[in-house]
Specification:
The chain has 19 helices and no strands. It is mainly α. It has one domain: Growth Hormone, Chain: A (Up-down Bundle). The longest helix is centred in the first third of the chain and has 35 residues. The protein is globular and about 60 Å long.
Length: 409
Amino acid sequence: MGWYKELDANGRRTFIASFGGWAIDALDFMVFTFVITALINLWGIDRGHAGLLGTVTLLFSAIGGWGAGILADRYGRVRILQLTILWFSVCTVAIGFTQNFEQIFVLRALQGLGFGGEWAVGSVLMGEIIRAKDRAKAVGTVQSGWAIGWGLAAILYTVAFSIFPEDLAWRTLFWVGVLPAFLVLYIRKHVPEPEIYTKTQARIAKENNRVSVWAIFSPALLKTTILTSLLCAGVQGGYYAVTTWLPTYLKTERHLSVINTGGYLLVIIAGSFCGYIAGAHLADRIGRKMNFILFAVLSCICVYAYTQIPLTDAQMLICGFPLGFAASGIFGGMGAYLTELFPSELRANGQGFAYNFGRGIGALFPSLVGYLSQSMGLAAAIGIFAGGAYVVVLIATVLLPETKGRVLE
């Protein structure tokens, strides 16, 4: 964390805000993966419809992420970051009051708009204030906040379903979504716009030459936009194919109790946190491309072992750590890489589109896994879709340029 000590006060506050925002987003988003089984039991929905509730959030996050990126390039990173966090928080709390599938479907869709925007804006905000040699470490450490939020979701799930009846327990997990409102107050008071953003806006105003939002599809940037979108689709498709259905897999096919399911997931989440940090440091050391290749190969191996090889419960507990390490470590260099590939006046726009287009494609995976699992089993469905996603990562990575050490202008 030497890079953190070298930040000024504004830089440290920006890191705290970005890290906290991503952790709380993870908490609010991942609680759904823990309540899938309860909704199936209480509302009588099948796995296909349950997967659709995961998919719709991710699909709408693609829209929200790109839209937030466009707005952040126009009106400021900090202002739009606050808006996305508040939107996501309100929708999450409201889900706890839903009474049927249709209501939760609509609110999960609206929730996705804020969920997609938070990362797109927060990642750019952090990437623009950090030096080139430390950019992956800093942005990747922000991304590790996801594991913290996921871990809190696992703990709250274990506590809520141990104390409350099932029909109340799942609602309390969504009501925790009120927490981000306090983070917005912190951001509003302490976090300024990055200097590179304010200078870019001053130049645009002086030259009266604002770039079109469609410029990310211009001949100069089209290849970058397409390949980064494919890269993000593979990374997130593999991740969501595994994590959305993992609690259900452990509980219904491995027949673990609530306490044991939470325990197994905490091992995976611990691996996830370590993976984020390792991936962030490796991206600055061995380069962005080699980092993606390394973790894509590791992810394929771990997903295959966890879902296709007959393991004892004890072996699954042990294998959970490398599974979480690999599936999350691949994200470690993502934010820095996307920040470096797009120019300043289109940075949030391009990054928001690529990451969230990838999320939109990856959003199909939970539903496809759910439907396919009804004919071939959950483990096989997870393995097929996750493995295919990481092959896409390898192809896109080979075709993209290396950006390690690139200075933002």
